[in-house]
Design a protein that fits this description.
The complex is a heterodimer of chains A (375) and B (334). Chain A is an alpha/beta fold. Chain A has 14 helices and 13 strands. Classes of the chains: A alpha/beta (375), B mainly alpha (334).
Chain lengths: 375, 334
């Protein structure tokens, strides 16, 4: 047993020397002339968030055209699983909608989070008394929304809702509001509950990818599995209200509510209004480069939005070829117009310039075996 | 002395040769190993569930099982009380068993005793096809057809029962939501899903009853109904109970279809007409994006609970079968 262990250590040490030699040899080469590796020879493995999965899938399809030596392999196992995998070192990068909690930061040592896309969440509704074409959209504000999901506002003709919607007040029925939420753990729920927490001090159910919904208790709430599940519940139950991803609502032509934002203006969810929210918080990043961007103060900012992140090891990567390719990959995601278009087409919202500069600044500090890695 | 020992060795070898000549011993070792594999797998699962949930058991304690439907399961605050999900699993399985058992035994009796020969084969096929449909298909069919067309009207019809006193009334607190997703929907879908299991086994049990039993009953002048009710069913009772256990097992563990039709809400009244969770559906929905380590551990403890409930119900049922099997049909009928 002892002999075996010693042999094993020897091989491991020899192997790491070999790797280090490889690394030092290839870093300058890679910096000078990229893509010297054989096609498909570098596999970047990632796992985590299902929210960003469609974008990662598109990247995995198109990035090899830019650099044939790289194969991207991303699986949607959930943000929690992604964070665990990057901490355990079983993947090269993790996707997550949730930030790292203090325990995870300690356990992961040099983990660095990179926001690379944002998503907006919208309130879809089913009010048969409203004509989706001719009537104006329903308008809600943060406090009212929190009260609805708290079970404090239970009827569509509640004075608070009527006051926000003077033009359609006569068409809001005396019917109970049926609230729909995500039943599966989801980054969309995280964004939505972050917003409710910011909107109202009366919101006491907390925030996260899964929470305990107050309206469920009262029997006026229900969960749907994924965006399609929530949409189906809304479509099949009259007088219902639920939150779905902006991209999904647009693709499926769902009517969704406008919101009164913090500045008091009525805003519609769109890439521009979400970018405005990101810009509002461009200087609010934590050292880990995370930020909550709900209830943004800007005049035109959409109030329910959130980042989705890639997590990598900032300084402890030892395979410098891989580190090089990983940094190039993230840089491509952040800056390449084609990559940005792939994500935008899927309904994700790209970073505004102010945020992008900040993220690139941190990305330029990645090191491998003490050597800086440049894209 | 020497002689006998040599002789003994010879006989021992001879015996070994004789018994291994036809491969009996290797064969029995092989199948024995397969049987032990089952034991190992079950124990490994139990051990994993037990050790992985250690943190949850230590931190949450008995609060996890506090029997109140007004319970909190909030990963955002790390509070975990599992009673609504245990209740959800039990109530949906109970509905399914109560409805499926008479229907299945009825079908089984018809197929085994009364069915015209021309109908028998197609009917048997249908039953087996019903068992082969994937549960996600049941779920889809449930959402688009069964719930709006069947469950929602039944729910509306049952809603007046809420005036019943105490618990019986609470069970029917309405209104059922327009699309029909509810605990009742899950119970009815489970009913349909376990009917083929119970039917197929009960039919085989009835067919295996020797014809002498039938002839004797007929010879004593009993009608067909009396023969089936007083002779065949008591004779096959232990087998039919076994079929019911298998059905119950499927109902307790069913995940996909239930998740799709149950509405997924941690609702506090426990009404059949309201949305709810089962243990399996909660695990399926929340495990992937578990929030905190304690959330994961609490869900593993929930898995352990489901495992334990299934095991206990199985043992109880085994005990019942054993009790029944010891009695003669004469006693069983009394």
């Amino acid at each position: 047993m002892f002999k075996f262990t010693r042999a094993f250590v020897f091989v491991a040490v020899a192997f790491s020397f070999l790797l280090a030699a490889c690394g030092t040899a290839s870093t300058p080469a890679a910096a000078g002339a990229p893509a010297t590796q054989a096609p498909g020879s570098v596999t970047l493995t990632g796992t985590g968030s299902t929210f960003q999965f469609p974008a990662e899938q598109a990247y995995a399809e198109f990035f090899p055209a830019v650099d044939p030596s790289v194969v991207i392999n991303y699986t949607g196992t959930g943000s929690g699983a992604g964070k665990k995998a990057i901490i355990d070192g079983t993947v090269d990068f993790a996707g997550s909608d949730a930030v790292l909690n203090p325990d995870e930061i300690t356990a992961g040592k040099d983990l660095q989070i990179y926001p690379f896309l944002a998503g907006a969440t919208v309130m879809a509704y089913n009010l048969p008394s409203l004509d989706p074409k001719n009537d104006p959209k329903l308008i809600l504000d943060g406090k009212t929304l929190a009260d609805i999901y708290m079970g404090k506002i239970t009827m569509w003709n509640d004075p608070a809702i009527l006051a926000l919607n003077p033009k359609i007040a006569s068409k809001l029925p005396a019917q109970p509001i049926f609230t729909v939420h995500r039943a599966d753990g989801s980054g969309t729920t995280e964004i939505f509950t972050n917003a409710l927490t910011a909107f109202s001090s009366d919101w006491t159910a907390g925030h996260g990818t899964v929470i305990d919904w107050p309206t469920d208790k009262a029997g006026t709430g229900k969960g749907g599995n994924g965006n399609p599940g929530v949409t189906a519940e809304i479509a099949k139950n009259q007088y219902s209200l639920g939150y779905v991803e902006y991209a999904y609502a647009v693709q499926n032509n769902l009517p969704f509510a406008q919101m009164v934002n913090k500045a008091g203006n009525v805003v519609t969810a769109s890439p521009d209004s979400t970018k405005a929210a990101m810009t509002d918080f461009a200087n609010a990043f934590t050292p880990q480069l995370t930020a909550v961007i709900v209830d943004a103060p800007g005049a035109q900012s959409w109030p329910i939005a959130g980042y989705t992140y890639i997590i990598i090891h900032q300084t402890s990567m030892t395979d410098c070829v891989k580190a090089q390719k990983l940094v190039e990959y993230i840089h491509w995601i952040l800056t390449n117009p084609a990559a940005i278009k792939y994500a935008t087409d899927l309904g994700f919202i790209p970073l505004p310039d102010a945020v992008q500069q900040k993220v690139l600044g941190t990305l330029s500090q990645v090191t491998c075996n003490g050597q800086p890695v440049h894209w | 002395m020497k002689n006998t020992s040599v002789l003994k060795r010879n006989t021992w070898r001879e015996r070994l040769n004789r018994s291994t000549r036809h491969g009996d011993i290797p064969w029995s070792l092989l199948v024995g190993a397969m049987a032990i594999l089952v034991l190992v797998v079950v124990l490994a699962i139990a051990w994993m569930l037990w050790t992985e949930s250690a943190d949850a058991r230590a931190k949450i304690g008995w609060d996890f099982f506090r029997p109140t439907l007004d319970a909190t399961w909030n990963p955002a605050k790390d509070i975990y009380q599992a009673w609504p999900f245990i209740y959800g699993t039990l109530i949906t399985s109970l509905v399914a068993i109560i409805l499926a058992v008479p229907i299945s035994i009825g079908i089984a009796v018809f197929l085994a005793e009364l069915c015209p020969e021309r109908l028998r084969l197609p009917l048997n096929w249908m039953i087996e096809m019903l068992a082969a449909i994937p549960s996600v298909v049941y779920g889809l069919w449930g959402i688009f057809v069964f719930l709006p067309v069947v469950v929602a009207p039944i729910g509306k019809f049952l809603a007046p029962l809420s005036s019943l006193p105490s618990f019986a009334g609470t069970l029917f607190t309405g209104p059922i939501s327009e699309d029909g997703t509810s605990r009742l929907a899950a119970g009815l879908i489970l009913t349909i899903m376990i009917i083929p299991t119970i039917t197929a086994i009960s039919r085989d049990v009835l067919l295996a009853i020797p014809d002498t039993q039938r002839e004797a009953a007929m010879g004593l002048g009993s009608t067909r109904w009396e023969m089936i009710w007083q002779v065949l069913l008591p004779y096959g009772l232990s087998g039919i109970l076994g079929a019911i256990i298998l059905g119950l097992g499927r109902a307790l563990g069913e995940t996909m279809a239930v998740t799709m039709v149950m509405g997924n809400a941690n609702e506090a009244t426990g009404s059949l007409l309201k949305a709810g969770y089962t243990m399996a559906s909660l695990l399926a929905l929340q495990f992937k994006e578990a929030v905190t380590p304690l959330h994961t551990d609490a869900m593993i403890e929930l898995g352990l609970t489901l495992f334990a409930i299934t095991l206990i119900l199985n043992l109880l049922a085994r005990f019942l079968v054993w009790q029944v099997a010891r009695r003669t049909p004469q006693e069983a009928r009394a």
